[in-house]
Task: structure prediction
Amino acid sequence: MDLHDLTRTLHSKSDTKIVMLVADGLGGLPLEPGGMTELETARTPNLDALARRGISGLSIPVKPGITPGSGPGHLALFGYDPLKYLIGRGALEATGIGFELGPNDVAARCNFCTLDAAGHIIDRRAGRIDSQQSAPLAIRLRQVRIPGVEIFVEPVKEHRFVVVFRAAGLGGNVLDTDPQATGVPPLRPVATDEASRRTAEIADEFIRQATKLLAGEKKANGLTMRGFCARPNLPSYEEVYGLRAAAIAVYPMYKGLARLVGMEIVGKSPGISAQTLDEQLAVLEQNWASYDFFFIHFKYTDSTGEDGNFAAKVQRIEELDKAMPRVTALNPDVLIVTGDHSTPSFLRSHSWHGVPTLLVSNCCRYDGCQEFNERNCLRGGLGQFEAKHLMTLALANAGRLAKFGA
Amino acid sequence: MDLHDLTRTLHSKSDTKIVMLVADGLGGLPLEPGGMTELETARTPNLDALARRGISGLSIPVKPGITPGSGPGHLALFGYDPLKYLIGRGALEATGIGFELGPNDVAARCNFCTLDAAGHIIDRRAGRIDSQQSAPLAIRLRQVRIPGVEIFVEPVKEHRFVVVFRAAGLGGNVLDTDPQATGVPPLRPVATDEASRRTAEIADEFIRQATKLLAGEKKANGLTMRGFCARPNLPSYEEVYGLRAAAIAVYPMYKGLARLVGMEIVGKSPGISAQTLDEQLAVLEQNWASYDFFFIHFKYTDSTGEDGNFAAKVQRIEELDKAMPRVTALNPDVLIVTGDHSTPSFLRSHSWHGVPTLLVSNCCRYDGCQEFNERNCLRGGLGQFEAKHLMTLALANAGRLAKFGA
Result:
């Protein structure tokens, strides 16, 4: 029996509202031993006031010591066990550029590479060709024609692009063609199950035609395909939680992840996302009556951390703090502030460290935390917990879960 | 490998004694933000002294955010994973009224309902007919005769009663006949596996005869059957822990749950339960030499919580505290005080909040807790832990578990 087996049978009707505000990469580290983290440094009077009313803790995105990407990090926050719901890289890459995968799609991430006259790989990333040069090449590959298959080719960054094959019944289990070595030719695509044989044949033909179209290019005269993946089949928020859920996100990746669990993407106007936090809050206010659950994604705590810019991350946290009164003015029954993982500017990357997490409701048990930051969360009433349990806690605090067993 | 695979092979002989005192629904909430819970309000000098000697923590009955009924709550305390050992509603209802299910029994909870002339349900609960009217009707149904089957009909409360079919080889997997709607007839019983086909036939015939016997009744002229369930098959305390266990409980539900794991029910005299806490302690003293493990159930911390009576719950906790010296006078090697779940009077219901838990032995590691209550337990040495681990800790502290691996 997994968590969704429980919530699926226990969720009950209510008109309560839940807001989950995800500050990407929120958790941090000090620059000096014993010093203060970004969140400890930031002036956050509004979050601190919420910490005094609510219950705090540190969420472990996947397992202790495991650093998640955005996919597993968000799935866990959404209550989907990130070790059960594995999203292939192809699907994640497609999602990240805003490509909406359909039920008949198989996606793969591709790299341009450099081949020698014998067809052996000289450079697996085509000399990290820049995006301006590579994008027209990716678009050129849209000329590939394979009967019975719709093909999408989308540029990504530098040597990367995405290919999606669309046809009924395609399996997504095809091995990578990247040999992870130079001096050898790319591998042929190999299916690992019966349902994926046709996919492998299509990929093989795609590579044949694409290589012709690239002939004569100096850097990018070949390609490899990796992370083949059919559209992940996740149960929806409506089904497992009984929630009508809305996502208010700026970047395609987070909208895509939200869409995978059945959230509706709401924006400034149909098809146009809010761009600033202020705009995101306006969208929240406009849609308040229409949904039970709101996922708000704030990107910049992560990007400043990735840049190694401690001061900028502090500033972004303070920007977030200033926005809180507009959220609390709506009187959500449950308000959660958390992150999908830590991104300490000290490390300039995602990390495994516990993520400061705060839950406010009228029936959370107070824990004496006075501020919202890593050292208070460590002593908080939520303890250190796997992020996948957060949604169950949200539902419980919102009065949306019946008793288990008599 | 589950917990019982470990304890089953590791338990060792000893003459140590373990007492587990379960104050039902012990955990609470403050009435005002930042205020004190029932347990924090109560004067508990004896429990506080034990907290200074022992180790404290908060137990999570099932998983974070999941509110358990009495069944899963107690099974977890007894060391049985409540998500593995699911007890059907029929068995739990029978257990709750003191019916001792045998190995050839299938139980179902039944509702009287009101049918119109066409046999369609008008009221699924027969107008919530009162117990004085419904009990004689349930007893009338004892006239049903089906060859080869022994049938038991027991009144419960209001529109509810329990039916048990006894015959060799009956399966318990039959779907509910309650259509969960009015304006339609009750469903026919349908078996979901081969072993339960005969059970469904018996239920069908029972309903046919019962409906005849109820003809002419104004409110309760029909019935529905739900939660069909064979006797749960749980490994015994003797087998998994090597413990001769005694249960000292007032209410049938808790005696029934204890019986399911092989505890013996001990009382004032054969067949007569102790009624007050004083009487329960007398029973504990009388039986001290005969058992290794004692489960004592104290109901009133839950019932006062369910009533929303904060002051009465405080008083019941103080009553429990006054009883502690009589328990400690027996010098148990391990003394545990806990609850099966929280029942905050603020919520007037069971809840998901962590349950204050205390373990005292001569080899627990002291944690500096000064009082026994929610805020001390949050900082305690047991941390926040799933209740199913408590029995393993009890056995370890009692010197009853050998080393795992060489």
